[in-house]
Amino acid sequence: MSYVWYKKGEPLLAEIQAFRRRQSCAGIWYIGQMGIVLGWNGKILCVDPVLGPMPDEDGVDRRNYPVPFSPEDLSVDYVFCTHDHGDHMHRETLQKLAAANPELRIFVPKPLKPQLAAMGIPENHIVGVCQNETFCPGNQEKEQILVRGVATAHEEYRYDEEGCSETLGFVFRLGTLRLFHAGDTVVTRELAEELKKEQGLDVLMVPINGRDMERHERGIIGNMDCREACWLGAETGADLTIPLHYDMIGGNEENPLVFADCMERLYPERKYHIMRLGECFFLLI
């Protein structure tokens, strides 16, 4: 697999910002691990951005490749974090994004609001979300953005005392488009049935790094593997499946060509796309 950026720095930032002027299409940029940027109808959204170092206990950065740009250089309207692991809810990234974007709103599972506040994120930036809650992130109907939180199982489902899930995936309804970002999760029947409620996803974005005893003994909680990710795409009728979460952190990688092999052998009628770092994938309405 490649650790080389297809596009980064000012060219990538300029491409993202230029998308604010586009109409009748959505853009998806891959920025590493589960991190994506979405462009739609004049708005820029981020999910699970990690734009800083990921040090181990000895202070050594575990990243396999550098960040594409500094977080303070990104103009963004909404950020979504799926759970509280550092490669999804990254302290330095969120602090710098909030400082550079005064109107930014950061959406997290409701039980994680105190953790985000403890990072020094101002309260007016933080929005807690529960599963099955559907909302417009900007409270403006004209944006044509609706988001639904979906409970996920990062090996197991976890809920707080009020019944709110500590881990979420997000369905993004962008006009008539339907996209799902899974965050970290294994495949469950409950998840498949929740996604079927969308009556046809245009894009399913899922982790593929899997799980095993060796990584469990290193304290790494796992996800679905390549074969399971392919099955979930087929089971939910997703038009396009995009594998993620396989390349950033040393010792927790997967070869995305294993995913491609599973799709070609088991589901040859289905579409998939393996994204290059910094690549933009366009979706037309």
Q: Could you describe the 3D structure shown?
A:
- The chain has 7 helices and 14 strands.
- It has 285 residues and is an alpha/beta fold.
- It has a single domain (9-284), classed as Metallo-beta-lactamase, Chain A.
- Helix 6 packs across helix 7 (256-266).
- 44% of the residues are buried.
- The mean pLDDT is 96.
What secondary-structure arrangement, pairings included, does this model have?
Blueprint (H helix, E strand, L loop, with lengths): L8 H10 L6 E8 L2 E6 L2 E5 L30 E3 L10 H10 L4 E5 L3 H6 L7 E4 L4 E2 L9 E7 L16 E7 L2 E5 L7 H8 L6 E5 L5 H4 L9 H11 L3 E5 L11 H11 L4 E2 L7 E5 L1
Helix pairs in contact: 6-7
The CATH homologous superfamily is called Ribonuclease Z/Hydroxyacylglutathione hydrolase-like
Our Rg estimate from Cα atoms comes to 17 Å
Spatial strand order of the main sheet: 6-5-4-3-2-1-14
- State the low-pLDDT regions, or none: none
CATH architecture: 4-Layer Sandwich
Please indicate the percent range of residues in DSSP E strands (runs of 2 or more): 15-25%
The domain count comes to 1
End-to-end Cα distance = 31 Å
CATH class: Alpha Beta
User: Count of DSSP helices?
Assistant: 7
Biggest β-sheet: count, sense, barrel?
Answer: 7 strands, mixed
- Fill in the CATH topology: Metallo-beta-lactamase, Chain A
Number of strands: 14
pLDDT average, as an integer? 96
| Estimated structural class | alpha/beta
Helix content: 10-25%
Shape: globular
Order of helices and strands: HEEEEHEHEEEEEHEHHEHEE
